Each structure stands twice: as structure tokens, then as C-alpha cells.
Amino acid sequence: MSEDSASNSETVGQRFDLIRRPWFLPSLVLCPLIALRIFLPSLAERPELAWLDLSQRARIHLGTAVPLDPSIRFLELSINDEIARRYATDGEYTTAESILKTLETLRVKVIALDIMYTHGLEKDQIELANTIQEINARGNTTVVVPFSIEKKRGHVPEQIKYSLPLAEGSTFAGGAVNAVADNHWREYRQVHVFEKKTYPSLAAAAFSASRPGPLKLKEAGIGRLEWKELTDEGEVRISFVDDSRIFLNLQHSYYEDSIDQQAKIGPRVWFISDLESLASDLSHQNNLINSPLTDTIVFFGYNAEVDGKPTAHGNMEPGMTLHGTALNDLIHGTSIYPSPLWLDICLFCVVSLIASLTFTSVRKKRTLVAIALIGLLILLALGWIAIWFFYLLIPAVASSILWGLAVVIEVGRRWTWEQRERTHRDALLGFYFSPAILKQVTKNLDMIRPKSNDVAVLLSDLRGFTTLCETQPVERVFELLNRLFGVETEIALRENGSLSRFAGDQFLAYWGAPEPVSDAPDRALRAAIEIQRTLIARREAAEEGDLDAWLRIGVGLHCGRGLVGHVGSRSYRDYNIVGDSINTTARVEGQTKNYAAPVLATGEFIEALAEPPPALHVDCVIVKGKANATDLYAILLYTEDHIMAACQDYEKAFNLYRQGQFKEALELFETFTDVSFETVAVSSRLLIERIKTLIESPPLKWDGVFELTSK
Amino acid sequence: MRPLNYIAFFLSLFLFGIAAAQSQEANVSLYVIDHSDEYSALGGACFKYTPEIKPGKDREILAIANGPPGSTVIMIAFQQDNLFRNLPPVVSVQSLTSSPLRFPAQQSEARWAYNETNNNVELYIVALEKDDPQLERLTEYAAWLTDSLGENDEETAMLHALAIKNRLANLHRSNNAEVQTISFPPGERTEPTAKAATTRGGLSQLGKPNTETKPTTETPLRGLKNIDAEWEEDSQPIRFGPEKPGILIFPITTRTTN
């Protein structure tokens, strides 16, 4: 928006003042967003989680995803024919016992069971419990038994559901299998609090079991587990997990092994058959020490069909992926934390502030849109950077929405405002410019900023206007002016001229502003000739008493510097041209009646023409108020032979006059006073009178230039 | 043979030569030393370690190793994730003038008494080139571990030991190391191992992932007095190369024989 249009709009639309404040529109979006974040946090979080999802997928495509810690492996129990047969013959619990023993044989450090054994016969439960106890007692492998914190359902209160309930399952060291999959597959809690007691998650319990006794996780207040670990500098530090929400850093699919393969890590997911044949082979070779599962933490669970928990990578991924990832995050400190409310609000406010500043400083809509796009990219990228490098889920999407909406509304506001202004401006500027120039001006409002240009000026004045006003009714006066200006305006605009406001009977058109025009004088000349010819034709066709008979004007043409721009006050402004060239043109026009020249042009104008027209050099004078001489040329509207002959004679006499041979010139001029070409006749009479005066009182120094004393 | 085949053959030979030139070897021997009076003349009897050798009150375990100049050899014993009996790890940068490296360290007072049955004890011997990316962290952790042991800070020592163990386990799992594990066939009795028959027997097993050591009877192999000069004859090679540390794992178990 240009300043002038802005100030125009101020006068036009005071009632939209609030909308025009740059902070208003961002605030309009900011307030509901903050309200949403405070009152409907889970809804506000959804798009951020989708963005988190995309960020992780992007990492895979970029090849920067990090494989799960090689110490974390999965053993999937798929119910295939073989397992179904075993379940039928040995039973589910005996099969589990056998698998646990095989894992122990393969030197697994921790087996984290992701299967709740709750519905078996008491005998089976006791046998499995005994097997687990035996394995734990041998000390090479620890089995972590799961339990579930059940939500309140109807009349059933919230409770802990233990595995192996008929075999004192509650006495086993275990971990909660609750992954908040019903809310969002990424959400997890490393610690659960139930009836003011602290319970580790399955991941935390497995981690604890993998550490030597004194280094296991210890309760440090309700809902907090602590352990000691080393910093990169070898210093001991206390780390902790609490019951706050985290989001799992699920970098790749359970089925996606390529990242592990790139890191030269062996199979991540094992199946029972593979495991048993491996155990058999290694035992046979007496090479169990080389088991690929040595010192690993194995999550043992059913496949997705039985497990049924959704994950980031689809419903076909078993829920134990969640626990495995949680453990990986625990080991490497890569859990993603949702940013706190205060940080979210701060981010929103900063984005809003930047939007306000941008709206204030950026004027062009295109620049604004470009900045908006860059801003969007930065905000969205910021979200990924926060996830990838700081493990923080910031409201990048919400901030982008805030930014984007604010920009869209701002652009809409500007567009609407511009439409209003354009309508207003077009109506205003349409008075001054031809449609072609108006089109350019409305495209680029800089064109009408104040400037100094070389212009060709056409100025006309109605002859006998004072008499007309005195003798004719006002309606006829205005009718005549409208007829005259109608002709002049139409012809000037056809030549792409720019107009100045009408002043009385005076008409002013110019070429070369607001934008330079290479053939400005030619256009002005064409317009002047056409105007005069049209008016002559109208006069000749006029009947008695017809107003057209009054259409007699003098036209002055001049070239020079013109200053163009808006002038006026806040209440009234006008695009206008001012400067010496306008004054000179007015003086020249004033001389048209003295020489009976319908169109009188200056020497500068004639020199500037690409092709000089037939013209008669009528005089060389210093017009009133000017210091330099001005050659005056009467433009010939018609070029009949007698006119051209009269002009040649006049020029001979005029040359004698300029050379100071006044008597000879006088004699010649006296022969022209009765010629039919009025310009020559009237000009000759003017010069005869002047020469007589010069003869009576000869000038001390004569250079052919006569100084006029009146306008 | 076509010319192309000749080229392929010589190219393979050339590449093999480069690979062979780049890989290096460290060596280690593991003995049970018997200090009982009957072997006092020898300064103590050195039995090559096998699970069949029974623990005794005068017995201790001693590992001797060396590596090519510029390499670093680390020896550390674990029982599961714990440092075994708080024996400080031994780290030595090898040079042309280095004397063989002993574990437990000769200078320290720590001794690995072999007086009871221990399960799940593993001796790790790690050889690394001087530019190996693992070297700095492993030696750092080993130094911190030794410091913690010196300060009797048991928990910190456990943390450092766990860090080393995890690092070695990850190397093992990720195939970023030449790992050899010594396994002993169950219950197999073989002929007594004579000195002449054991000359650098390990060399013939280069490149095999698992090295089987034939069990020996309790016939003393060497005397402790001369062990520095003779140990290499019983040694196991540990192959390693650029960015590929060599790890040899000796499981220390005791087997009851009838």
C-alpha cells in the first residue's frame, strides 16, 4: 500500500481502525488457539502427534533413523500350526515354560514377558511360576512378569491385574504393560502410580532387571524411580523417570530391519522356531557363548493379531514394540516430552508478535506471502528439529496454523482494503489519466509519486469566455464548456495524455508523466491539431445561435520539465502538474490571439518533435516573467498553396526584421496585411506596429528578440 | 585360462595380500598357576587352563598377552555384568620393548585365586589398533574403573564395569569386532599335552570364529620362572585390524570330572 492510498483510506474508513492495527489479526487467531490449548489439550495435541509421526518417517527416508539398541530384541509368538499343536498337546503354559528355558539357554539377560498369563489352570500357573522362579534363582537370566493396571469398568473398581494370579503372581518382580494405546499409540508412562504406590512400566522393570543389584532402579518418592549412570565424562549422575506423559521415539517399524542391517545388527525379531533351532545348533556345537542373544533384553509377546495394540506403523505391529521402544528411550534418554503449557503459550505469543511486526514492516502482498511461506517452513522445521535433537514436542503445527491463518486473514484484509481503495482511486485517477496509463498507474502506484519529468504540455483557453459568461445563461455556459472539454478530453486521452483539473475555461493536458513517453511532443501536437480541426468543423457546421459557434480556442504547446504529483491537503488532494513549463505554455497560449494562430508552439517544442510539422516562425519574444527568448511557431492546420506562399513571404520579411532592417521589413509586412491567411495578416499587422515603434526609437542593441510587456 | 581370469586371480591375490598386511595379531595364554611346594623348584607350575583343572588353595589364574607395537591390549574379567572380584583391568600400549602383559597385573597386589568354583566368569582380552575409534572410550572407562577401585567406590566401579561390558557386548553383537570365544568340548578327555605338541597350535586356527582348546590333564606344562620366555608357545592369537578390534573371550568355568 502506498502512503497516499493509506492516508486516503484513513479518511475513508475510520471505522475499520481496529482491523488496521497489525497486532489485531494475529491476536484474533492467538486467543482461540490458547483457549484450545488450555481447555482441549488432547485435541490440540493431535496435529502435533501427526507431525511427530511424519518427522520419524522422514528420518527413515533421510537415512538418519537410529536403530533400536542392539541389546533389545523381540521374540514373537505367532500362533501357527506348530504352536497350535503344542498348545493342544502340551498346553500354553508348558509351551511358555519351554520357551523361557530356551531363552535362558541362549544367555538372554532379561526376558520381559508381554503376555499376561491369567486364565490358566492353577496347576499350569504354578508350574510356570516355578519355572520363572528357577530361572531367576539361577541368576543368569531374569524374567520380568507383567501386570496390568485396569481402569474402572462399571462397578469393577480400578485394580491391578497380575499374571499368574493362582500362583502368587503378585510376588514376582514385574512391570506394568499399560501403554496408553487407546489414547495414542505413542503415549507412554515409564512409571505408574496406583493407590499412592509406584509401579514401573514393563520397560522400566526390564531395564532395572538388566542392571546389577546396587544399580537397579530405586523408588525416590511416589511416582519417581532413580538410578545412577555415567555421563560421557565418566561422572556419576542420578537419572530418573517419573509418571509424566512421554511420547515414544518410534523411529522405525517393527518389520523394518534395514536400519538394523545397516548397523550390522543381527535379527531384531525372532520367532520361536528360529530360536529353538538356534539353541539346538549352538548346544550341539557347544558354542552357546556365541549366542546372538547373549546379554540381550528380549520382549516376549504375541504378534499383532493377538496383541491388537496399534502402533505408529499400523495395527499389524505388536504392542511389545511400544515397550521395546520405551526401553530404548530410557537407555538413551530419547523419550519425547510434550512441551509444557507455558512454553506453548510463549511460542504462540512469539509467533503472533513476529506476525504483527511482519505485517507492519512488509507492504507488498507478494513479499508477505513469500515471508509467510518461509515462516511456515521454518516453524514446521522447528518442530522436527525440536523432536530430533531436543526430544521435545512443541506445538509446531498449531504455531504454523496461527502464522498461516494470520497471514491469510491479513492478505484478505489488505486485498479487501485495496479493492475499496482501488475503486476509490480509479474513480479519482480516471479524471487525470487515459485508460492505458490508468492501467499502468493502478498496477504500480509508485508511478504517481512526486517526480520531475520532461513533459509536452498542451494548454487551451476559450476565446471570448468573459463575454460568453456575461451574455449567456449559466446553463449554456456550462453546456459549452462541457462540449469543449468533451472534445479536448477525448482527443487528449486517445493520445494517452494525462489531464489536469479544469480551471475555468482552461484545459491542460500533458504527455511524459507520470511515466516518460518517448514521443510526447508528437502526441501533444497531434492532439492539438485534431482538437482545432474538430472545433473548426463543429463551428463551420454550427447553425445560427448554436453553441458550437463559440468553440474557438487558442492552443499553446511547449516542452520542458514538469513536476507531477499529488498536491493538496488531507481533505482535498489532486494529482497535478506544476512548474515553469506550465507557466510558459500559458504565456504562449496567451499569445495565440495576437498572432491569430490556432496552435502556437515554442521553439523547444518544435525541436523536440520527431518530424517537424508545417509551421510558421511568427516571432521571437521574451514573454512576460521569463528571462530567455522564446521562438513562437504557428502550427499550420492546413497547407494549401496560398497559405504556404504567404508563409514564405512572411518569413522573408521576418528575417529582415530580425536582422534589424526595419524599413525593408516594414515595406514587406505592409504587403501582407490583406492576405487571406489570417495568421500571416494579423501577425504582420502586429509586427508593423512594433517596427514603427522600433524605427521611432531604435534599440541600442538589436538581437531580433522583442520583450513583451504584457501577458 | 583366459586373460581375464588371470587378471581376476592376481587381483584377488593382491587384495588378499593387502587385507593380510592390514590385519594384525595379538597373543594370549591362560594358565592356572600352582604354587604348592611340590612345584617350588619351578617357581610354581603353569598349567594351560582348561575347565578340567580343579581349583585349589595354592592355585591362581594368570593370563599373559602381548600385541604388535602401537597396539593396545586390554584384559578384564567379568562375572555376568560385574567386575570379577574387583580385579582391576589391565591396559597396555604395546611397544617394541614392552614386556608381556599379565592379568592380574604383575605390579598390583591383586591375585586371581583359583580356589573355588565360579560360574559365568569370562576373561576378555581386547586388542585394538592405535587409531581404533573404540580405543579412547575403552581406555578411559578402564582408567576410571581402576580409579574407582582404588577409591573403594564400589557403585561407581560397577557403573564403569557395566559401561565396558555393554560396549564390548555391543561390539560383539554388531559384528564390528573380530570376536573369538574359547569353548571346551564337554567331558572330553584327550591325551596329555606335551610341550613339543603345542607349539603355537593356535596359528593354524586363524580366521576361525571359535577356537577350541583341547583339555589337558593336570600335568604341569611350564615353570613360572621361565614363563615369560615360553608363554607364546601356548598362546591363542587374537586377530584385529583397522577399526576392527579383536576380542577373545575365555569362559572360566570349572567342570567336575570323574
Describe the structure.
The complex is a heterodimer of chains A (about 700) and B (about 260). In chain A, the strands form six sheets. In chain A, strands 17, 18, 19, 20, 21, 22, 23, 24 and 25 form a nine-stranded mixed sheet that branches. In chain A, strands 1, 2, 3, 4, 5, 13 and 14 form a seven-stranded mixed sheet that branches. In chain A, strands 9-10-11 form a three-stranded antiparallel sheet, with no helix packed on it. In chain A, about 40% of the residues are buried. Chain A is α/β, with parallel strands linked by helices. Chain A is rod-shaped and about 150 Å long. Chain A is built from 24 helices and 25 strands. The model of chain A is unreliable at about 1-15 (pLDDT under 50). Chain A starts with a helix and ends with a strand. Chain B is an alpha+beta fold. Chain B is built from four helices and 14 strands. In chain B, α2 (about 135-150) runs antiparallel to α3 (about 155-175). Mean pLDDT of chain B is about 80; it is low at about 185-215. In chain B, β4 and β5 (about 80-85) form a beta hairpin. In chain B, strands 1, 2, 3, 7, 8, 12 and 13 form a seven-stranded antiparallel sheet that branches. Helix content of chain B is about 25%, strand content about 30%.
Rounded to the nearest angstrom, the distance between the terminal CA atoms of chain A is 44 Å
Strand content of chain A: 15-25%
Radius of gyration of chain B from the CA trace?
A: 19 Å
Number of helices of chain B: 4
Elements of chain B, N to C (H/E): HEEEEEEEEEHHEEEHEE
Low-confidence region ranges of chain A: 1-15
Q: Give the terminus-to-terminus CA distance of chain B.
A: 59 Å
The percentage of residues in β strands of chain B lies in 25-35%
Radius of gyration of chain A: 49 Å
Largest interface: A-B, 27 and 35 residues
Shape of chain B: globular
